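For reference, the entry.
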Amino acid sequence: MCVGERHYTRHGIRPILENHISDIIMPDITRCGGPSEMKRMATMAEAYNVMIAPHNPNGPLSTLASSHVCAAIPNFFKQEFIFNDVPWRDTIISHPLDIQNGQLVLSKRPGLGVDLIEEEMDKHPGLREHRDGFYI
C-alpha cells in the first residue's frame, strides 16, 4: 500500500509510520513542505523501513526538485512524473529533462540544473480555479 500524496510534513506521516499502515509513502514536494521537509520525511520513513515514491503530477521544476531529494536518500523507490502532457513542457526551463531508458538523469549544473524561462511561463499561466476542495 502506498499513501501520502495529501499528507503534509513529517508530523502528518507520523501516524502512518508508527501504525505500520504503509510500505511506501508518496509525499508531493509541492504540498509537503518542499525539498527540505521531503528529505526529513524520507529520513523518518527510513527508520520504519518505509520506501519513498514521490507523488508528482506536476511540471518539470517539481520533477527535478523531487528527483534531487530522491538522489540523496537511501529509501528511494520510484519517482512519478509526467513526461509528455503538454507540447510546451520543456520550453519553460532552460534545459529539457534528460530521460534515458525511462530514467531521469540529473545534470551536474548548479541548483536544480535549470533556469525558468519566465517569458514562456507567462504564455501558460494555468487554471486558477477551485473545485470541491481541490485546486487545479
